[in-house]
Specification:
Blueprint lengths: L1 E12 L8 H4 L2 E10 L2 E7 H7 L3 E6 L4 E4 L1 E3 L13 H6 L4 H6 L4 H10 L2 H17 L2 E7 L6 H17 L3 E9 L9 H17 L7 E6 L6 H13 L3 E6 L7 H8 L3 E4 L5 H10 L2 E4 L1 H6 L7 H6 L4 E3 L12 H12 L3 H7 L2 H6 L16 E4 L16 E6 L2 E5 L2
Parallel strand pairs: 1-4, 1-5, 6-7, 7-8, 8-9, 9-10, 10-11, 11-12, 12-13
Antiparallel strand pairs: 1-2, 2-3, 5-14, 14-15, 15-16
Helix pairs in contact: 6-7, 7-8, 8-9, 10-11, 14-15
Length: 410
């Protein structure tokens, strides 16, 4: 007897299809069914095939009229922090730029001050609410960055909070050390801070109790240069971290080409990357993580998703949940990806499932296939095309993590 069966899904999206088009890659099964044992998918097919197999389940979910997809993977979040920056939206609406707000002591610098003042317990309490919202919106795995401590003590405190959330949250967390996010006020310049991070903070973080999978940096003109990021990422790699990079969000800083050169798992933002940089990402198999809500909230142009896709890059989507772009809905981000970046609904769904999983170095997530973790979402509409089309309401019936119901009516 199997642990769990899902039957009669109007559409069951496996993300394990074969073919040259995104629609074919969805691996869509009409009147779909799946079987779960020991937290993993043990079989996938049609409900007719399920009936013919004569399987018996301890629990059955009838998904008649519903869409079933893999659990969403959010490959880029800054969800662990203290405080908020709601008034900065008014400053942006008045024409002030992201960089201007940062230079005035707002933006990242403001969140650093708030996070430094908060205790680990306070950070956990604030962050738990954001994680809960992601879960309710179908996220079963999320990458989560440090970067608001900007000191050895502050970064270790953030890691302590992430460690608590890893143990207590129903969302699987993948920690990332964001060592270069902005230069804190106690340092004269970015170069001095980079040297400090390389010599003092990277070794301590590498041996911390909460182990970070990735190391990340903000490669941007006026923040950290290509050369500074190269020094930092090479030191991170030598300490055992896999690499990510915030690249070319506001200007072409050479971040995309650096990501290709150093073998980063993903390069994120890419709003201003040139064609040579994008081509290098495609050649080296670096996943492009696009963050359309951040472009909207920062009043900057969207990344050229169509050109990036044509280059051969695997394209993922992320929320970039942060004090700058406080969005907790993959569905909303998918809608903006379609409307603003001209991605298709199939491309958007792949962006938050199998491609997002690759952006955090995971082959097993973002798919529903034999042997994969039974992370899946039952949606209250019949087709994946509704995901970017009908937004603003609660359309998640239930969320399952490793075969167990973690949210909803199931």
């Amino acid at each position: 007897m199997i642990d769990l069966a899902v039957i009669h899904a109007e559409e069951l999206v496996t993300c394990r299809g074969t073919g040259d088009t995104p629609d074919e890659s969805l691996g869509l099964i009409e009147d779909g069914a799946l079987a779960v044992d020991d937290g993993r998918v043990s079989w996938v097919g049609t409900t007719k095939e399920y009936d013919q197999k004569g399987l018996k389940a301890r629990r059955t979910v009838d998904a008649r009229g519903n869409l079933v997809t893999p659990g969403f993977v959010d490959p880029h979040t800054h969800l662990v922090y203290a405080g908020s920056r709601e008034d900065e939206l008014e400053r942006k609406a008045a024409g002030e730029s992201y960089k201007s707000i940062l230079a005035s002591g707002g933006g990242i610098a403001r969140t650093v001050r708030e996070t430094r003042k908060a205790s680990s317990e306070e950070i956990v309490k604030e962050s738990e609410g954001r994680l809960t919202q992601l879960l309710r919106n179908g996220v079963t795995t999320a990458e989560v960055k440090t970067g608001y401590g900007q000191s050895l003590e502050g970064e270790l405190k953030m890691l302590e909070a992430i460690g608590v959330l890893k143990r207590t949250s129903r969302v699987e967390l993948v920690p990332t050390f964001l060592g270069l996010h902005a230069t804190p006020p106690e340092f004269r310049n970015a170069g001095d801070y980079v040297n400090h991070v390389v010599k003092e903070i990277i070794p301590a973080v590498a041996s911390a109790e909460t182990r970070c999978v990735f190391s990340d940096c903000f490669c941007e003109d006026g923040v950290f240069s290509r050369e500074e990021c190269g020094t930092y990422l090479k030191a991170s790699s030598a300490s055992g971290f896999r690499l990510k990079i915030h690249a070319d969000e506001f200007a072409d800083s050479g971040g995309a080409s650096l990501a290709a050169e150093l073998g980063c798992t993903s390069a994120d933002h890419l709003g201003r990357s040139d064609s040579a940089g994008i081509g290098a990402l495609a050649e080296k198999g670096v996943v492009a993580v696009l963050l359309p809500w951040t472009s909207l909230s920062s009043s900057i142009p969207f990344a050229d998703a169509r050109s990036i896709i044509r280059s051969g890059c695997r394209v993922a989507l992320g929320t970039d949940l942060s004090p700058n772009s406080w969005v907790e809905s993959p569905q909303l981000v998918m809608s903006l990806a379609c409307a603003g970046m001209k991605m298709t609904p199939a491309e958007a769904l792949l962006g938050f499932t199998v491609n997002a999983a690759r952006a955090i170095g995971r082959q097993d997530l973002g798919v529903l296939a034999e042997g994969s973790p039974a992370d899946f979402v039952v949606h209250s509409f019949p087709s994946y095309r509704f995901l970017p089309y009908r937004i603003g309401g609660q359309y998640i019936e239930s969320v399952f993590k490793k075969g167990g119901a973690v949210f909803g009516s199931a």
